[in-house]
Amino acid sequence: MAQVLETTDPDVASEMFREAYSRMRMRVQGPRPLFSVTSTPVGTARLDRTIFRMGLEGAADPFSDIYILGIRSGVVEYSTNGSNEAYGPGEMCFPVPLGMPWATRLENVDSELVVLKQPLLDEAAGNEPGRPPVRLLSNRPHSAAAAAQLWRATSLVRAIAAQDEGEPPSPLVMAAAARLLAASVLTAFPHTAKSEPTCTDRLDAHPAALRRAMTFIEANPDLAITVVDIAHAAHVSVRAVQVAFRRYLDTTPMAYLRRVRLDRARAELLNATPGQGLTVTAVASRWGWARPSRFAADFRAAYGQHPYTLLPPR
């Protein structure tokens, strides 16, 4: 559920900014300033909407999280390490590298923020535990098309998080939405993650590793497991477990996990009893599908029938 905080007091705005992002020494201009933050948790990620109805100049401490900024209206300028950049309406950017102090100047800016923890970005990149963290290499996306794709992903995730049919989306849905945000950021921006398996990865992609990975997945489909968890259970690297699934099953670890969850969802529908009140929407959400229509399409593709046909008559 989204949390909304608003203030017209510059001192309170400074405190709100510190709690949400980092400590900033700000100078505010304008007769009736307004600072508003709407925060929507998405698993271990977050989507924020920030509104500055004011002129503002400030210097801030380094960020501890990764912030991707999308400008809805207004222009915001950032200064980091002697470099100055300005971003305007419709632009997406990674304005402040981690660990670097920064300064900003803006006036009447409405923006959206994708907030990612470093481990989530590492997971999405398939980065091995203990290796250097994945870093974004540019403050701007590859292209306007890449930025537009990231905008669409954030809009989709925001819609998923906003769904309210009596209960919030399931943890599996929100974990998948967080991974979508991280993967979309990696697709949009150049980064340091390697993409090709090594010779060792290919040698480790043997049937025994595949069996260990499959056993782990089949024992834990109700948990928000990741490809890093699967590789750890198989005692091989992420790249090796990905090669093994592709080599022997022509699929990916996460696609295999999705099929196991689909099988469990089908079993739940088959075992439903009259009067239980079970719905396809509830089953879909419980097993990680944010949209019943997507669940129904995947179900038909796998089993040749609509999931509603498995429910007993009421």
Explain this structure.
The mean pLDDT is 92. Among the domains are: 3-118, Jelly Rolls (Sandwich), CATH 2.60.120.10; 196-251; 266-310, no CATH class. Helix 3 packs antiparallel against helix 4 (171-188), helix 6 (207-219) packs across helix 7 (227-234) and helix 6 (207-219) runs parallel beside helix 9. It has eleven helices and seven strands. Strands 1, 2, 3, 4, 5, 6 and 7 form a seven-stranded antiparallel β-sheet that branches. With 314 residues, it is of the alpha+beta class.
- DSSP summary, beta strand count: 7
Low-pLDDT residue intervals, each spanning 5 or more residues? none
Fold-level CATH name of the domain at 3-118: Jelly Rolls
> Mind telling me the CATH superfamily name of the domain at 3-118?
Jelly Rolls
Q: Kindly report the average pLDDT value.
A: 92
Amino- and carboxy-terminal Cα gap: 32 Å
Q: What amount of the residues lies in strands?
A: 15-25%
Cα radius of gyration in angstroms: 22 Å
What's the total helix number?
11
- CATH architecture field of the domain at 3-118: Sandwich
CATH class of the domain at 3-118: Mainly Beta
What global shape is seen? globular
Largest β sheet strand count, sense and barrel closure: 7 strands, antiparallel
